[in-house]
Amino acid sequence: MFQLRAIRPSLTAKLLAASLSFAAIAGRADAQTQIVPPSAAPAVQLATDMQISWEVRNRFRLFREERDFALQVSALGGRSILAAEQSLATQSDGRGWARNTLGRLCIDQAGRVSEPCTRDGVKESYLTPVDHPVTVRLTGAVPVGATCAWTFEDGDPPRQSTLDCAEPINLRVRYGRATPVTVDVSSGPDAPLRVTTQIAVRDIFIAGLGDSIASGEGNPDRPVVLSDDGFCFRSYLGGPAGMYFRPGRAGFKGARACDTSDGSSLQNWQRAGAQWMNPACHRSLYSYQTRMAIALAAQNPQIAVTYLPLACTGATIAEGMFSSQRARECVVGKNGLSCQGTVNAQITELREALSAAAKRQPERQLDLVLLSIGANDIDFSGLVADVIVERQTERALSRRSGVLTSVDEARSILQTGLPRDFNKLRQALKPLVGGDLARVVYVAYANPALVNGAPCPGGRGGFDIHPAFNADPQRLAEVTNFVQSEFLPQIRNLALCSGGVLCGDQARDRMTFVDQHQAAFANHGFCARSETDPAFDRECFSATGESFVNDIVNAANNPLVCGAGASDFRAYSPRARWVRDANDSYFTAMTYPQAQKAPTNQPGDIHDATWGVLSAVYGGAIHPTAEGHAAMADAALPAAMSVLGLGLTEAPVVSEPLSPAAQQRAQ
Predict the structure, then answer these.
(1) How many structural domains are present in the chain?
(2) What is the residue-averaged pLDDT of the chain?
(3) d(CA 352, CA 558)
(4) Which of 440, 498, 510, 517 is the most buried (most CB within 10 A)?
């Protein structure tokens, strides 16, 4: 980095000031690059063969290190977010790009914002930056070997540096005001030419709110690493017949058999689990909200993006947005588990962040909110459970504990409770975005159970991770049709104040609504299969639900019928399905929820039947994959750019349908 030296005002500087003053009187735009001979008459000669170009470095401010942002910029390279995600997945051999970035963020795993945050060796206020790092260079028809004398007037005295014009300059410019830049270009005996511009960084403040679709559930930043050996679970049937083996966690040194356990096994087991940007909420860097914010920064070199992720798996409007909710998992640290127990209300967290920012920068505003909410309000997880829990013992237990929800029950909430709560949310968000809810970009859900535009057929394929699971075809079709014909249209009406939904101020109560990705998901539901899927998926995940060895003696050594090791599974390899099934959930996250403050509410034995069920679904069953989130981000980006006035032309999600030969339905 070239250091800039301060100079005292001189005659040259005074002449420069006079020249610039005349240019302003002549009606020239301050931010327009101009080239004039320094000794010329006051008339300014406009030229187009040289320009001052500049961009903000590491402009996605959640990243501490520029290398992480550079990776994203390189992957995007004029491509869609989906194409970039697929490229990064291939580069990482399906292990995922976020695993290396997780420890280099300005927000820790407990959700605390680092104030200050050290980014590329410089301490910055994360929510209220006072300056930004930029790179400035001279471009265009620059004479070879020319010398550039740079002046940056953002203080008294100004900063100056002279060097070869081929060299860029790195510096930090103050936020909240423009920095005039002048460069005198000298080459040979000719009089120097002057190029001027202004640098003004726009720092865009974005908050991400919502539920598990918003948080990135199903896509841990560091997926669980599975062992090739079997691990025993009990089922609710009891006895030897009620035992089954599935892959365990790599690195776990405790007992793998059901008849041997000890009190320390649970903590040791948790240490070998998946890692999240925020375990309590299962927030992930793969979420569509984060991916869109990254792409926004990557595609706009002269902005910076300050991003505050608050979305939380399990959130409803009442519990999660307006009041605290139960945390999903504990933070696993060097000294053991750190459990929050509950997570603060998202609206409260956002208000406190804005209040803290306003104390330091009164002009600081929230520019954009990304939002997805409503599925948990109608108990969508209960609908899923009603579809996949098949065996009578487990169904009876699930029904008694209130885990199962019928379509009629969800419909009743959709028609009454959700509209009431959504109106409360609208009123709470409105003052946070300057009274205009168009600055809230509501990204709709996609139907997770479609392939070739029709409902998935059901069966054990994708769900045989647990002996009691089987997607009932009739119940699956009923839920799929309810989602498509009732839930998704009502969500649209609520966001847009349409379809009979009344809003107090129709013009300013309508959110910006995004649903362009739904058509693409119609070919990529949880049952989609392709000849281009990873070899492990094609060979080891049976379409008929016969993936695992039933004999417990043989399964203890390797529970997969295909004979391959579970460690060969790659959570982030591109595949036809953009929605994780239960098998994916287990192989990717294998979650043991451990966040309640009262541990007596949870089984102490890691082989317990309850863990067998939860580990199969708690890590993101029937949630978008990283590819699905990337497709959602592609749909959201043009809407966000339009709201922010950044002028991106329409860039619809592109998804080529799979050929009939390449796409197979689960049988």
Answers:
(1) 2
(2) 89
(3) 51
(4) 517
- Pair 114, 221 in one domain: no
Q: Looking at residue 190, what is its pLDDT?
A: 79
Q: 116: domain CATH number? A: 2.60.40
DSSP code of residue 242: G
The phi and psi torsions of 40 (rounded to 5 degrees) equal -75, 170
Structural domain including 326 reads 205-225+273-532+574-644
Helix and strand element counts for the chain (H, E): 21, 26
Q: How many CA atoms lie within 13 A of 440 on its CB side?
A: 27
Query: pLDDT tens-digit profile of 581-601?
Result: 999 999 999 998 875 544 556
pLDDT over 70, % of the chain:
87
Residue appearing with tokens 């098949």: 390
Instruction: Encode burial over 406-437: b for 16+ CB neighbours within 10 A, e otherwise.
Output: ebeebeebbeeebbebbbebbeebbebbeeeb
User: Does residue 622 lie within any of the structural domains?
Assistant: yes
Tell which residue, 143, 115, 158, 121, has the closest CA to residue 12: 158
With contact defined as beta carbons under 8 Å apart, do 283 and 312 qualify? yes
Smallest CA-to-CA distance from 106 within 121, 119, 97 is with: 119
Convert the pLDDT of each residue in 497-549 to its tens digit: 999 998 989 889 999 999 999 999 999 999 999 999 999 999 999 999 999 99
Per-residue pLDDT at 44: 35
Higher-confidence residue of 334 and 429: namely 429
Rounded to whole angstroms, what are the CA distances from 425 to 293, 378, 406, 421, 436?
23, 16, 26, 6, 14
pLDDT over threshold 50, residue 274 = yes
Give the ranges where 62-163 is alpha helix by DSSP (H): 66-76, 81-91, 98-101
DSSP strand pairing (368-372 vs 202-210):
parallel
Burial of 478 (0-12, 13-18, 19+ CB in 10 A): middle
* Residue 84 · residue 630 · CB < 8 Å: yes
8 Å CB contact between 562 and 554: no
DSSP 556: T
For residue 157, say if its preceding peptide bond is cis, omega within 30 degrees of 0.
Answer: yes
Report how far residue 293's alpha carbon sits from residue 61's, in angstroms, rounded to the nearest whole number. Answer: 10
CATH number of the domain residue 497 falls in: 3.40.50.1110
The C-alpha angle with vertex 536 and arms to 530 and 537, in degrees rounded to 5, equals 40
pLDDT band at 31 (very low <50, low <70, confident <90, very high): very low
